[in-house]
Design goal:
Elements (H helix, E strand, L loop, with lengths): L10 H13 L1 H34 L1 H5 L1 H29 L1 H20 L4 H28 L6 H25 L6 H7 L2 H12 L5 H6 L3 H11 L5 H22 L4 H10 L1 H19 L2 H14 L5 H29 L1 H28 L6 H5 L8 H5 L8 H6 L3 E3 L10 E3 L3 H9 L4 E2 L8 H15 L6 H6 L8 H53 L8 H10 L2 E3 L6 E3 L2
Antiparallel strand pairs: 1-2, 1-3, 4-5
Length: 575
């Protein structure tokens, strides 16, 4: 997944999870009902990539202004940052169940605002509202599942939230394809997101509050009643005892930090050398996860397919299904391998694969741009002088223009009617001109140019996802759940999560501008450079935590210059 936590779970735990939930379906009902929050999260991440293609066609101002496209995409991320922060406070103040219900209402309202938006500003507001709900869900759903699950299968059940996130992304591409032939296209794509929120709201009304939250509020009898539905009768007393010990230990740790305020916790964390070293590792992997460019693929996948020369919206979205499916499959692979091969090793291998793919992808786009079809003056005036691109008419070097030259001037390329690789027309970027081009059975290009090697970009993007998903996709969240001392785990994890969201916002808000400035090849080469920096940071500053108890991780961080990995593995250097 691109934003959100993932719990580690091995194959044996999944097997026991299946057996336990088969005997006690109530447990799976809890997990899946709360996990719909992950589905909403994933759907919102994926749906905008296809909807944007049709938003641009309906609103010329969006088609012409790159910053407006980036804002529509990234406002959900901005809303999620605020939602996650407020969601943490709501979880503690009002409980997990009420927080999920509020998130559903917020998400539903945002979906409706987007679906009925009369102009782009309304879409931005709707995206901001939806993002707020996504941020709340990203904090609350895994927490609710974790606290309402038997300890022995907790990792497997929380992992269902991660699966539902990537599953939601895949479903969003399917729904995008389903609505391509309707008149309302993007309105239905964005509006249908409100339905899962309604389903979850109804399901959660009949489910209980987190037993841990109730116990902390001295509602012991209510907490016990819930545990009696989750555990066999002969285990309830033992679970109550463990819950009591855990809560008391947690309160003791909180008391050791200070007054419990966020400022006090952050100051306490930064004053500890051990926590600082943990934060270096945790923040590096979270920032590297985003700056390797993953959310350019998640948010702009069909657009990237159009960069590769696939002008048809339907074709671009169909090809994007491949990357979405591979991302979901990679999440499953990560769950089964992270405890076998270790966190650090998997991330290093993942980053190497990402860097290679990004460099090759840059090469493919460079070759495509270099061999773009040229512009023919007769073709360009075929639709009338008023239809020709103004910049092309006034250009002193118009004879040397090719398709990419035309697109860089915010104009459209109307391919040759006989063969799209032959010289074509450079036309003004308006609805009417686009309609004239298509009515002549010609292909209209606005993002990329016809390319004989465009299929290689699709292949390399698939390899990029295969490299990313099992490693950098999920392992940074696993590492951040293990790297901090118990009393600072929430604070450290929160700081690292904020760094992830902020990095996500920066990447999603600047991607199209970077493409305009550097070209697609230069942009992906830049992400390769960021990934190389991330690889260096992981190699020198991130320890191996596989198989270590929390106390052993803390001791590992105290060593400073040398991080020893577990179970006889070689030492790994760290600053």
């Amino acid at each position: 997944m691109v934003e959100g936590g993932a719990a580690k779970a091995d194959k044996a735990e999944f097997s026991e999870c299946w057996q336990t939930t088969w005997k006690t379906p109530y447990i799976m009902r809890l997990a899946l009902s709360a996990g719909i929050g992950g589905l909403l999260f994933g759907y919102d991440t994926g749906v905008i990539s296809g909807a944007m293609l049709y938003i641009k066609e309906d609103f010329e101002v969006v088609d012409r202004k790159t910053w407006l496209q980036e804002t529509i995409v990234s406002m959900a991320v901005a809303g999620a940052i605020v939602g996650a922060a407020i969601g943490g406070w709501m979880n503690d103040k009002f409980g997990r169940k009420k927080s999920i219900l509020v998130a559903d209402v917020v998400f539903f309202l945002g979906a409706i605002v987007m679906a009925v938006a009369p102009f782009p500003g309304f879409i931005i507001v709707g995206r901001l509202i939806v993002g707020f709900g996504v941020g709340m869900a990203s904090m609350t759903a895994p927490l609710y599942i974790s606290e309402a699950s038997p300890a022995r299968i907790r990792g497997a059940l929380v992992s269902t939230n991660g699966l539902l996130i990537t599953g939601g992304q895949f479903i969003s591409y399917l729904i995008n394809l389903a609505f391509t032939k309707t008149k309302l296209t993007w309105r239905l794509m964005l509006g249908v997101a409100g339905l899962p929120a309604v389903v979850q709201f109804v399901l959660m009304l009949s489910l209980p509050e987190s037993p841990r939250w109730l116990y902390r509020r001295d509602k012991v009898d209510e907490a016990r009643a819930i545990l009696e539905k989750i555990y066999p009768a002969n285990q309830v007393d033992e679970e109550m005892r463990l819950l009591h010990e855990s809560v008391e230990s947690e309160k003791t740790e909180e008391g050791a930090i200070g007054d419990g305020s966020i400022i006090a916790k952050v100051k306490g964390a930064l004053s500890s050398q051990v926590v600082r070293r943990g934060l270096w590792a945790g923040i590096i992997v979270q920032v590297a996860q985003q700056f390797c460019g993953i959310n350019t693929v998640m948010y702009y996948s069909p657009t990237i397919m159009q960069f590769a020369g696939y002008a048809s919206n339907t074709t671009a979205m169909a090809l994007s299904l491949v990357t979405s499916f591979l991302n979901a499959a990679g999440t499953v692979v990560s769950m089964l391998t992270v405890d076998r091969y270790g966190r650090r090793r998997i991330m290093i291998i993942s980053m190497i694969g990402i860097i290679v793919c990004l460099v090759v992808l840059a090469g493919v786009f460079f070759q495509s741009a270099s061999h773009a079809p040229s512009i023919d003056a007769l073709e360009s005036t075929h639709f009338g002088s008023n239809s020709t691109c103004p910049a092309y008419v006034s250009a002193p070097d118009a004879s040397s223009w090719n398709c990419m030259s035309c697109l860089k001037q915010k104009c459209g390329f109307c391919a040759n009617g006989d063969n799209e690789y032959l010289p074509g027309a450079c036309l003004d970027l308006t609805k009417n001109v686009r309609g004239e081009c298509r009515s002549n059975r010609r292909v209209w290009f606005t993002e990329g140019c016809p390319s004989k090697i465009g299929f290689l970009a699709v292949v390399v993007m698939g390899l990029y996802i295969i490299s990313y998903a099992p490693g950098m996709g999920t392992v940074p969240w696993v590492l951040n759940s293990e790297i901090y001392p118990l009393r600072y785990r929430g604070t450290g994890g929160g700081i690292a999560a904020v760094s992830n969201w902020v990095s996500n916002l920066i990447v999603s808000q600047t991607f199209l501008t970077l493409v305009e400035t550097l070209g697609a090849a230069g942009t992906f080469l830049l992400f390769a450079g960021f990934s190389l920096l991330g690889l260096v940071g992981i190699y020198f500053l991130v320890p191996e935590t596989k198989g270590l108890q929390f106390e052993e991780v803390e001791e590992l961080l105290k060593q400073g210059k040398k991080y020893k990995s577990s179970k006889g593995q070689k030492e790994v250097s760290a600053q």
